[in-house]
């Protein structure tokens, strides 16, 4: 730039100067290359809040387990109740560890394996507890044998119209529920193996990923188990009403 014969140095802030300089690059504020803020789950606050509730749940549940063991007057029933109660500390502590290692490469998959295996054990113990409440398979059959199955679309028994309760019905409920106790641990172990070989990525529904097939098998298994468990409760709800077994899940 020249003013009355005097040469002036170019203004560094001038747009023409910046455009001419190859070493200057402008990154917009909203550019995806800008450093992103960490999500809340990765913060210390999230870990502290979750830790407070985890340890609160641990203390309350451990106290309940202690009281059951201290007053162990009905061992045939209380052993199942104690096993069911243990799902709270296992689930809570496992989830907390997954949160603490949230930034690591899918470490939660390995933590979840222990949780999934115990979840299958809890389903088995819940069904066994219901059988124990009612005095076993023979006692249940003596109460419901020959009674017509109430057909209802709401309760999923519309396909059983005209049928009666029999030993086959009861064993179907038992076998369909217990298959989940086998499939769930197998899927958990398969997940760990696939993860080790780089063939599993959580949330990846690609046909080359093991997550898709594990999810399909798991959903079929758990749906069948819950349906069979519901059918069993639907057939014996009047007999189980004094024990309120559903509250064991809350």
TrEMBL record:
Q: What is this protein's record name?
A: Transmembrane protein 184B
Q: Which residues cross the membrane?
A: 39-60, 80-102, 176-198, 210-235
| Organism per entry | Mustela putorius furo (European domestic ferret)
- Region (Disordered) residue spans: 1-23
Where does the protein end up?
A: Membrane
Q: Locations of Polar residues compositional bias?
A: 14-23
One Pfam family of this chain: Solute_trans_a
Q: How does it sit in the membrane?
A: Multi-pass membrane protein
Chief subcellular location: membrane
Question: Per its UniProt record, what InterPro entries does this chain match?
Answer: Ostalpha/TMEM184C
The protein's UniProt keywords, in alphabetical order, are: Membrane, Transmembrane, Transmembrane helix
GO CC annotation, single: membrane
